[in-house]
Design brief:
Elements: H1 10-21, H2 25-54, H3 60-104
């Protein structure tokens, strides 16, 4: 058996290649619709990209730092309020001691 020469395949392949270049109207219309859809989607993508670029920067780290600072300040406020209450109690004690001292030793 002899191998078939490649030149003999040309008459078989040529009509296939010619038909492949001819698109039917339906395929042409579908391709045009797809191109329109691709163009529309690219436009939407550009708008979304522009919106993303115009978004304000992420402030979550600053917010977390501010919350930590708030908690620290609230703890400090509670400590100071407690200290003020203790000092007021000490003042009342000293005031009563002073009143008893004045009563015991009147000024002449």
């Amino acid at each position: 058996m002899r191998p078939i020469h490649p030149i003999l395949f040309i008459p078989l392949i040529l009509p296939l290649l010619l038909c492949a270049g001819c698109d039917s109207k339906e395929l042409v219309q579908k391709r045009e619709q797809q191109q329109v859809e691709i163009t529309r989607l690219r436009g939407e993508l550009k708008l979304i990209d522009e919106k993303l670029k115009n978004m304000p920067p992420d402030r979550s780290k600053e917010l977390a730092a501010a919350k930590e600072q708030e908690e620290a300040q609230l703890a400090e406020i509670k400590a100071l309020e407690s200290e003020v209450a203790d000092l007021e109690e000490r003042k009342r004690e000293l005031q009563s001691e002073f009143e008893s001292y004045r009563a015991k030793y009147p000024v002449k």
